[in-house]
Design goal:
heterodimer, A: about 160 residues, alpha+beta, four-stranded antiparallel sheet, 5 helices, about 35% helix, B: about 375 residues, alpha/beta, Ubiquitin-like (UB roll), Rossmann fold, six-stranded antiparallel sheet, 8 helices
Amino acid sequence: MKMSPEFAKAQANMQPGVITSDGFLGDDTRPIVEIIAADEETMGRFGIDFDDAIERMRYLMQQGRGGLGEPVTVDDAWIVQVYEARGFLASPFEDGIYRKVNAQVTVKTEGSDAPQILFSELSLHLMEKYHFLQGKGSSFRIEPERLKAVLYPAGKKAN
Amino acid sequence: MQETPMIVQALVAPLSVAGISAVLGALISITDKIVNNYGDLVLDINSGKKKIDIKGGAPLLQTLAESGIFVPSACGGRGSCGACKVKVITDIGPHLPTETPYLEPDEIEQNVRLSCQIKCKENLELEIPESLFNVKQYAGVIERITDVTHDIKEVYVKLPDGAETSFVCGQYGQLEVPPYDKVKTPTQRAYSMSSAPSDKNHLEFLVRLVPGGIVTTYVHEHLAEGQKINVIGPFGDFNVKDTGAPMICVAGGSGMAPFKSIFNHMIETGEIESREVWYFFGARTKKDMFYLDWLYELDKKYDKFHFVPALSEPQEDDEWTGPTGLITEVLDGYLKEKIDRSQPLEGYLCGSPGMLDACMAVMRKNDMTEDRIYFDKFA
């Protein structure tokens, strides 16, 4: 699959030490167009619509912000903790800057191995505009299977 | 004619590409050294108060650090925190697109620049706060790491023999962790000192694990007692004002750090017996609370010290009998009903930007004026 100059530049910006110390690709050596294509296929297989998932994630992040840095229970289904740090992160596609706000969303269950996802404002932008879920092994990789387990737990629906 | 073996044919193309790349790389490196050689330059800081001879070509932030002047930077010079602002008197051209998002219009007008983004290409005249001359880099050793909650560690650093720190309660230092896993360069992040200034041979920090955070992950998963660590500081202008006014202090999580330093200092100076202090500390459940015994003891021992811990979501087995709700709600109730507002109050805050904004809104609503609310907007 061919990389446009825009995507080639973005891939260079995603390397460790360019925008963030550990980059956006983890151990993944594939061109980002391949990562995106594979993830679009997987999201489709799990029946997850990108727009719907993003809407739910934004809602959970917004609710989590109400915890003022402490974890907060949302809709009796999720525990959300939002971390804010000073400053901004540039998009590797050079199309904007985003506040350093991370949300950790955990399904509220009795067990200790509750499904969990971690995403930032920048993650949401990359997911919404490019369907880019980050490379495998990246701290902010949004794994479709885990996304489904967290956003669509049995019997729960985000308000 | 003898045929070239298949394996040699297969290697010709990649080896040729690698060879050409190596030659091009060397050429670029040589060209860079020639074209970007700006020679020996001089930095004139604060109208001649300091003059430093430097080699040109490197970013100003790095050049200053190499000369022993440490401008604060929460991102280690990646242009993502906007902290390393320096006023450049010399005209060095328009602001870069990587700078403008972090600068206010009046800062742009006064030629404030992000020192990590501009390179030293000519002699430069700068203005920086003189407090930065006091900032030092210490090669410390981790003397003790203590888990104070499930996600907060107390990190106690011994300074090198003979080195002494001099800071004001409320200031912060930058911890630098070495490259690890996928992180290829040293990384710095800012943390408030939790030790008292009188402990001159040590610095203490409270580090809360931030998922995906490079420095906090290192501290929680790799840092060990006996290990060396670089600490740079002190930075920041968050401090207790010498007015005697009642203090309304609010924190959550590792925002406890400056207040631990402040209260211990007030005990040492005796100020804790003469100045009214209200300390509001918020957490979700009891397992997120810490230093409770110490703070309850202060509350009991000193008439003017009042500790108000609150849980936003107490669990059944917490057996919590104290205030519940968000710390802002509890603060609002106390300001309305329990705190004497007959004299002007001072607000002291430490927490995430969202927490600070919410606390300031409550304080303003209760007639506290913004010019008497102090904070350092670091998470």
